[in-house]
Amino acid sequence: MEKSGLPMNTIKKVAGTPFAALNYEISGVCNAKCPYCDSGCAPVYAGSPYLKAADFERGIDRLLSLGLIDTSTCVELFISGEPTLNPDLGKIAGALAERKIHYSISTNGSRAIELPPEHVKFLKVLTFSMSGFSQVSYDRIHGLRFEKVLSNIVKTLDNLFGKESWLYRRFMHSVNCSFHVYQFNVQEMEEAARFCEGNGIAFQPCEAFFNGVPDTIAYLRKELSPARLHQASRDLLVYYLDNLLKEQPSDYQCPQWNMLSVDEKSNIVVCCGGFPRNYPGTVVGSMFDLTADEINEKKRRMPVCGPCMGSGAAYWQHHRHTPAFIGRFPKPNKDIVYRIGKLLPDKLRLAAKKYLRRKMRRS
């Protein structure tokens, strides 16, 4: 049952403190054709969909000057677009490295990434998003060439981390595989986990869902079209959903209220939860026209937040389920460095990280 009377954000972000995470869309399009993602179903983009490096630098400097971000902020170079399509990706990464700001990239693996070592130093998280581990599954979701994706993943790892030691890489970077679990690819998880283990990638399966707030709300309200519902019933695993939504606290606070999201036109947008381009009530305004206080206040009181919170869509999107049955699959990161790291006391592990960071800066 849909909840009503849920409060808007009551957790006030402390004035003058930067956002810990900034989602900055640098590509307004994606070359994958996922039927459950707004980017995959999007119409032809009008004009250039790619954020130019000069405009990105201008936007980052504006946010720095407003005090909304600083060098402690991690900039995620994506929302729902494919960042590797942007021809200025290298320059954008360089702009962040020059400002000593860490960043993360999520990619579908359709293109191999190559960045200079001085830019890789500030790459905090690299995520490969996979829709299965066969061409059959890829034909059903991403529509990409599966063997080419695997080749690009290996090339990317070699390009970015080939000369780094396992110890250095383990402490300084997080490389993950976000394996989207569907009804039809469960049997492919074991082979995917082995591939990840063999390449030093953390295998992180999670059950696929509607990567778009409007469809999520429509599904929860039982308003999806019969054809869309029929398709979802054959693809998605949602057996846990009723129990999950029962766990939502009455005073639940959406994490997006304390995150900052910017589209490829440098507009502040309500969140990175997934909305079609130009969806009503999602654009807060241009970062160049608003003050920091206006951004902080307006982004917490957007009209789309009410139905998203009330239907349970926000809670579902931020509590994605990890299948309990993955325990029998190979565990990634079983190398000796990982094992030792898990045994180290927290203080000693932090000291090791600080040592490696100092070493990185001197190199």
Structural topology:
Blueprint: E1 21-24, H1 53-65, E2 74-76, H2 89-98, E3 103-107, H3 117-120, E4 123-130, H4 135-140, H5 146-161, H6 166-172, E5 174-181, H7 189-198, E6 202-207, H8 213-220, H9 226-235, H10 241-246, E7 260-262, E8 267-269, E9 283-286, H11 292-298, H12 305-311, H13 313-317, H14 336-343, H15 346-362
Highlighted features:
nine-stranded mixed β-sheet, alpha/beta, 363 residues, 2 domains, 9 strands, TIM Barrel
Could you please describe the fold and organization of this structure?
The structure is a single chain. This protein has 363 residues and is α/β, with parallel strands linked by helices. It has 2 domains: 21-332, Alpha-Beta Barrel (TIM Barrel); 334-363. Helices cover 37% and strands 12% of the residues. It has helices at residues 53-65, 89-98, 117-120, 135-140, 146-161, 166-172, 189-198, 213-220, 226-235, 241-246, 292-298, 305-311, 313-317, 336-343, 346-362; strands at residues 21-24, 74-76, 103-107, 123-130, 174-181, 202-207, 260-262, 267-269, 283-286. The protein has a 9-stranded mixed β-sheet. A hairpin with a 4-residue loop joins β7 (260-262) and β8.
What's the helix-strand series?
A: EHEHEHEHHHEHEHHHEEEHHHHH
- What spatial form do the alpha-carbon principal axes imply? globular
Number of helices: 15
Could you describe the largest sheet, including whether it forms a barrel? 9 strands, mixed
**In total, how many domains does the architecture comprise?**
2
Structural class: alpha/beta
Strand content: 5-15%
Compute the number of strand runs: 9
CATH homologous superfamily caption of the largest domain: Aldolase class I
* Proportion of residues in helical segments: 25-40%
Mean pLDDT: 86
- Please write the CATH class name of the largest domain: Alpha Beta
Rg over alpha carbons: 21 Å
